[in-house]
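Take a minute with the sequence and C-alpha cells given here and flag any C-alpha cell that looks odd. Thanks in advance.
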Amino acid sequence: MARTRILVVDDEPDILELVQYNLRKANYDVVGVESGEEALAQVRTTSPALIILDLMLPGVDGLEVCRRLKRDTRTAAIPIVMLTARGEEADIVVGLELGADDYLTKPFSPRVLLARLRAVLRRQHIEPVAADAVIHHHGLMLHPGRHEVLAQGQPVLLTPTEFRVLHLLGRRPGWVFTRNQIIAAAQGEDVSVTERSVDVHIVSLRRKLGTVGDAIETIRGVGYRLQE
C-alpha cells in the first residue's frame, strides 16, 4: 500500500529535519524543501497529499505560496497546515482566509503536529453537510427547513443570525472559521454583523444551548469551530 506523501517546507534545517524524522517514523512518505520556489515546483512533480508550510521563507513567503496554490485549480484541493514562529493574529487569519486548513506555532510538539495532520487528512474525506440537510452532532439537532434547533431534545429559540452562525459551524465540524468568514455567512438583509458582534452571538449560543454549547470552541486569535 502506497504511503501518504507529505511536503514539508521550512528554511530552518533543524526544524525541517525534526519534522521529516517524525513523519517518516509515523510511516509517511516525506519530501522536504527550504524555499517557497522549491515548494511550488515540488507540488507539481510529487503531488503531495498535504503540505506543512512555514510562513517565514526566503523569496516567496508561505502566505504567497498558499495564495498561489489555492488559486490554481490543479492544487487548490491540497490541504495546508501552516507552521510558523509568528503567532500574530493577523498572520494566522490571513493564512486561514487564503485557504490553509490549520496552523501550528513554533515551538511545537511533534505529537501535536502529527495529530493535527491526521485530523486534516481525515477531514479531506468528509464532505460538508448539504445546506438543506438536517444536522445531528453532539446532542444538537438543527433543521434548516424548519428553522428548528434542539439541544439534548429540548427546543432552543435562536435569532436568525444565531441560527446562521450555528448552521455554518455545524456543516463542517472540526473546521476553524475566522470571524470574517462567520460575518460573511451570518449577514442578513436587515442585520449588520461585526467582529465584536460575532463574539456576542457565540456567547449567546453557548448560553442557550447549555451543555451542548460546550462543543463550540474558541480558537484563540483566529475564530471558532464546532468540535469534531
